Amino acid sequence: MAAPIEFRFDFASPYSYLAAEKIDGLAERFERKVIWKPVLLGAIFKHFGTVPLTRQPGMHDYSVHDFARSARFHDIPFRMPMRFPVATQVPARAYYWLHGQDCDLARRFAHCVFRTYFVDGRDISESAVMLNISAKLGVDPFALSSAIENQAIKDKLRQETDAAIALGMFGAPWITVDGETFWGADRLPQIEHWLETGGF
Fold first, then answer.
1. pLDDT band for position 11 (50/70/90)?
2. CATH T-level assignment (fold) for domain 5-197
3. Neighbours of 28 (CB within 10 A)
4. Judging by DSSP bridges, how do beta strands 5-9 and 34-38 pair with one another?
């Protein structure tokens, strides 16, 4: 069986959200699995001495416009959150805890987190918002609340972020197919062509 696609992302990344809505369907057409790996872009930006697109000189207005335009292009619901960006330690930790128990549930949770932020505009850095999402999915909110403070889960997120930095990840989404890295949701057509042809 062909190697799985690795999908590294941050829950506060608009382009990660767009890719998240498409990546599994794309992979399925080519009988590939996708491994989802949330990381912390804030730590990555700090490591490389960079900042989010919306905080780079002269890029704020264009970036915000392109987020919405790209969402329309992909026919994905999108609303720019009032508070942007936000810290994503809480949802990322929750994801890894859930993934350790049920991969499909963790995937559904991830989609809910993205939509809660980029469609409903709610602040996903707040534990109460995560607990609300988990409850709707049938997850014990008390267990989740304890899990996101668990040192092993904190370490898992730190290790995945450090591993992403070691791979050279500087932005999100960061998608790896057969050892080839693609940065950004706008690279999905290239990824599709790569899967069709076996590389180019």
1. very high
2. Glutaredoxin (3.40.30)
3. 11
4. parallel
